[in-house]
């Protein structure tokens, strides 16, 4: 049996349905196995409804909760589970699987592996062309690193903020971009950058800001990413991040 979020939430009704299924004997008389994917998406009522089942499961039952954010679960839920930690794949291993499974070029596979934290499964659900289009919309048009020449910094904000489900992914796009700018700033070449198709822009933009500003901007993306982990409003968080990253703004990170 599989329980997954619907519209980003696992509700009490899903857990009640699960409990009804677990109360029945398995068809072949063997074990009943349930996977609750993205378990951190359970709302409070769903978690409380699951507690009794976790404490006293029906015979021959295995319940597996899968989450990358165990700290979002109730302590009472965590205390009733055995904890097994799985590390992400290395970027090289993940990119090899993405290349094979999605038929991508190596550079694109490395970019996707980096954006998804070494998760090929997540990478397979994404469209590399659409991600590059999103990246280009603010790299080329919003003008984060303009030299004071025209352009509205928030010209591409609507597109950047439109899909709240992909907030983490969008912040990862920013994080990787700053990473590449910093690497070029330090080493003076693009050998280690991940956005290889944007090498010209990386060289240009890296030259317009000091290393201190680039490092502080990268720290800003980390800060707001952490803020989102604690259920902050996604749109307000991204608006605040974009404001702090604007070199023309008085709020630019120093």
Question: What key attributes describe this structure?
Answer:
3-stranded parallel beta sheet, 12 helices, mainly alpha
Multimeric status of the protein: single chain
Number of helices: 12
Helix content: 40-55%
What CATH architecture of the largest domain would you give?
Up-down Bundle
- Taken from the alpha-carbon principal axes, the silhouette is elongated
Number of domains: 2
Helix and strand string, N-terminal first?
EHEHEHHHHHHHHHH
| Global mean pLDDT | 81
Unreliably modeled segments: 145-156, 250-254
Beta-strand portion reads under 5%
User: Which structural class do the helices and strands define?
Assistant: mainly alpha
* Cα end-to-end separation: 51 Å
The strand line-up of the biggest sheet is 1-2-3
Largest sheet: 3 strands, parallel
Task: Explain what the structure shows.
It is a single chain. The chain has twelve helices and three strands. The chain has helices at residues 12-22, 44-55, 75-78, 91-102, 106-115, 120-124, 128-142, 157-161, 167-187, 199-206, 211-229, 234-245; strands at 2-3, 32-36, 61-65. The N and C termini lie far apart (51 Å). α4 (91-102) packs across α5 (106-115), α9 crosses α10 (199-206) and α11 (211-229) runs antiparallel to α12. Strands 1-2-3 form a three-stranded parallel β-sheet, with helices on one face. The chain is mainly alpha-helical. The protein is elongated. The protein folds into two domains: 2-78, P-loop containing nucleotide triphosphate hydrolases (Rossmann fold, 3-Layer(aba) Sandwich); 127-245, Zinc Finger, Delta Prime, domain 3 (Up-down Bundle).
């Amino acid at each position: 049996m599989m329980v997954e979020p619907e519209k980003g939430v696992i509700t009490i009704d899903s857990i009640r349905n699960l409990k009804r299924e677990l109360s029945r004997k398995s068809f072949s008389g063997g074990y009943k196995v349930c996977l609750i994917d993205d378990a951190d998406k359970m709302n409070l009522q769903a978690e409380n409804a699951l507690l009794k089942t976790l404490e006293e499961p029906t015979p021959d039952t295995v319940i597996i909760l899968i989450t990358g954010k165990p700290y979002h679960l109730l302590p009472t839920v965590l205390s009733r589970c055995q904890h097994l930690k799985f590390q992400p794949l290395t970027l090289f291993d993940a990119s090899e699987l993405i290349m094979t499974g999605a038929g991508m070029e190596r550079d694109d596979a490395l970019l996707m592996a980096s954006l998804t934290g070494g998760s090929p499964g997540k990478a397979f659900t994404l469209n590399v062309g659409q991600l590059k289009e999103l990246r280009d919309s603010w790299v080329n048009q919003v003008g984060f690193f303009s030299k004071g020449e025209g352009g509205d910094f928030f010209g591409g904000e609507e597109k950047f903020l439109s899909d709240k489900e992909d907030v983490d992914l969008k912040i990862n796009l920013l994080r990787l971009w700053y990473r590449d700018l910093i690497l070029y700033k330090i080493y003076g070449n693009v050998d280690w950058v991940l956005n290889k198709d944007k090498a010209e822009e990386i060289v240009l933009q890296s030259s317009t800001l000091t290393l201190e500003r680039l490092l502080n901007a990268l720290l800003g993306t980390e800060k707001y990413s952490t803020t989102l982990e604690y259920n902050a409003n996604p749109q307000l968080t991204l608006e605040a991040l974009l404001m702090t990253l604007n070199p023309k703004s008085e709020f630019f990170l120093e």
